[in-house]
Design brief:
The chain folds into 2 domains: about 120 residues, HAD superfamily/HAD-like (Rossmann fold); about 100 residues, Rossmann fold, CATH 3.40.50. About 35% of the residues lie in helices and about 20% in strands. It contains 10 helices and 14 strands. The strands form 4 sheets. Strands 5-4-1-12-13-14 form a 6-stranded parallel β-sheet. Helix 6 crosses helix 7.
């Protein structure tokens, strides 16, 4: 606990960590307030790019959390940052929700329409997925388009279980095309760099709190950020026991309500 009290930035996962669907995890809003009372900053970072930050802000307020627009970051933000920096001028086909399309448009990236050629295919957690979109993405990749994805999450925790997430959709595309995507979001290096640059706070002064071992916790363990694991979402203690010691969480809680 003394370790966490020294931190200047708390990077909070959302799905499975502070809420499940529209159900608030017990004590989560109060935990956020305790962080603020300790003069630390909060960043809400979700790999779930099916919504844009404005929609997340609305949801957080509706569920009773204190949040500001500049505190909310998604894997979609990391992806558009990469595209604008390293793939400027390239055409993009985006398989994502209307909210993610809006994020791309606001960043100056205008995805091509169905049937148009593209240099890059970006696949995300698309709750508006159709067979036409899937077929188009696979055809473009077979014809040489670069295959990128906002995040690798396999399942998205919801109130009554899980639903297929970006990684599951990408697995289908990979099986059809034989091409593996380059992933952004947690746990990739671009995300750790984005968090540090965006917040202005060093990694040694940051803690990542989340429920997924292969995204939230791996971000911390791979990139010098303290990793706090909560058992309120996807990951279990049985999953922890299967990990190499180097990738095990620095600290484990039942939920954020236990962090006091």
């Amino acid at each position: 606990m003394d370790l966490l009290r020294e931190k200047k930035l708390f990077v909070m996962d959302m799905d499975g960590t502070i809420y499940l669907g529209d159900k608030v995890i017990k004590g989560a809003p109060e935990f956020i307030q305790r962080v603020r009372d300790n003069n630390a900053k909060v960043m809400y970072f979700t790999n779930n790019a099916s919504k844009n930050p404005d929609l997340y802000l609305e949801k957080l307020h509706r569920l009773g959390f204190t949040a500001h627009r500049e505190e909310i970051v998604t894997s979609g933000d990391v992806t558009v940052g990469f595209l604008n920096k390293h793939r400027a001028g390239k055409t993009v086909y985006l398989m994502g929700t209307p909210a993610l399309h809006e994020t791309f448009e606001k960043a100056g990236i205008h995805p091509v329409k169905e049937g148009e050629p593209a240099d890059i295919v970006v696949v995300s957690f698309d709750t508006t997925l159709t067979y036409e979109k899937l077929d188009n993405a696979c055809a473009l990749i077979r014809n040489g388009a670069e295959f990128l994805s906002t995040h690798p999450d396999i399942n998205c925790p919801i109130e009554n279980g899980f639903m297929p997430d970006s990684g599951a959709i990408c697995a289908l595309v990979t099986l059809s095309t034989g091409v593996e995507p380059r992933y952004f979001g947690k746990p990739n290096a671009e995300t750790a760099e984005y968090i540090e640059d965006y917040s202005g706070i060093a990694r040694k002064d940051t803690v990542m709190i989340g429920d997924r071992l292969y995204t939230d916790i791996a971000t911390g363990k791979k990139h010098g950020i303290t990793a706090a694991f909560v058992l309120s979402g996807e990951g279990t203690m049985e999953d922890v026991e299967k990990l190499d010691d180097s990738m095990k969480p620095d600290i484990i809680f039942g939920s954020v309500d236990d962090i006091r």
